[in-house]
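for the recovery benchmark. tokens below, seq after
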């Protein structure tokens, strides 16, 4: 059976959600979840650009992530906030948000109609992250899960261990008179890294790229505690720059902005660093395996905790996870979506093959 044979391109007549060209649609409530084309009413799982796109007439978002949505979608966007666990009626559907543990304000969307209860997970993780509410399992009939790291080779270390590795790397570079440039996704990953450095700022200054600084402000506005950071213009002293930890998005690699930190050592923080050869292909000196997505065991734990008898798998290693779930007796299919365009995703040649 090929991957295309697994993919669901439409839903049954009594499905709670169905696929349309604009995205995942709930007819009972007349809304879309994370639509990829402009619609009248959008229910958003989290603020990453592949899920929260501009151009919608009205957005329903979590109150916990409201500062991020304002930063990402603009002050003129029509945003309605909902607390975790609060239920509202949209047409004949009941809708509620529940923590997904992915980034600040990330939510699983629970939709209940006369045809049953479905949960769209968005992106999620079960690992420790003090910058957002932890994942909470939600019982449902059908669970729509991501599968970004849906292979058994992906199993994450403890977050505290990765923080310790980053601090030791930073200290060694500072002792050698080199700045430490750490590439990480601007929303979520950068703040999770920073949260582990609160007691390590005596090594040197923490300097952030403007893309990271803007989102740090949104996190602090939401009450998340982060260490003090600086812009490079605030640190003119060359000796201080050589002891600095620099957080930048992957797109900044090789840019003129980085030249002022020379000499520096660079590293990449991503779940893809678990793949042999990825660090070399990225051209970085070091890799830290830190992901804001669930690893293999976390995916299975979350699916089991949902109690769902049907699972729809999207964006990631769809075939592999579907095959495993079917082997365990669950009804499972792939679901074609346009998610997964985060800037730390690998190009096709970098992604591991199924094993």
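predicted aa per position
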């Amino acid at each position: 059976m090929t991957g295309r044979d697994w993919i669901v391109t439409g839903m049954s007549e009594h499905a709670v959600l169905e696929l349309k060209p604009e995205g995942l649609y709930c007819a009972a409530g007349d809304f879309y979840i994370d639509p990829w084309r402009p619609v009248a009413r959008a229910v958003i799982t989290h603020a990453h650009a592949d899920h929260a796109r501009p151009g919608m007439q009205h957005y329903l978002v979590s109150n916990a992530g409201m500062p991020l949505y304002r930063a990402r979608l603009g002050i003129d966007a029509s945003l309605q906030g909902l607390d975790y666990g609060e239920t509202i009626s949209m047409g004949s559907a009941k809708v509620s948000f529940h923590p997904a543990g992915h980034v600040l304000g990330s939510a699983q969307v629970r939709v209940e109609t006369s045809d049953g209860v479905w949960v769209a997970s968005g992106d999620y993780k079960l690992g420790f992250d003090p910058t957002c509410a932890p994942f909470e399992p939600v019982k449902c009939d059908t669970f729509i899960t991501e599968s970004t790291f849906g292979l058994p080779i992906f199993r994450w270390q403890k977050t505290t261990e990765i923080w310790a590795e980053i601090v030791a790397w930073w200290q060694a570079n500072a002792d050698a008179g080199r700045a430490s440039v750490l590439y990480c996704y601007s929303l979520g990953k950068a703040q999770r890294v920073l949260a582990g450095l609160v007691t390590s700022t005596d090594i040197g200054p923490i300097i952030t790229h403007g893309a990271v600084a803007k989102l740090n402000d949104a996190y602090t506005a939401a009450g998340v505690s982060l260490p003090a950071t600086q812009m490079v213009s605030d640190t003119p002293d060359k000796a201080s720059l050589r002891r600095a930890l620099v957080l930048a998005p992957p797109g900044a690699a090789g840019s003129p902005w980085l030249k002022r930190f020379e000499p520096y050592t660079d590293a990449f923080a991503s779940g893809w660093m678990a793949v042999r050869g990825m660090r070399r292909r990225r051209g970085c000196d070091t890799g830290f395996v830190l992901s804001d997505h669930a690893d293999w065991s976390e995916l299975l734990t979350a699916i089991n905790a949902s109690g769902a008898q049907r699972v729809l798998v999207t964006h990631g290693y769809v075939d592999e996870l579907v095959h495993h779930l079917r082997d365990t007796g669950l009804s499972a299919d792939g679901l074609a979506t346009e998610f997964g365009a985060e800037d730390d995703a690998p190009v096709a040649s970098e992604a591991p093959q199924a094993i």
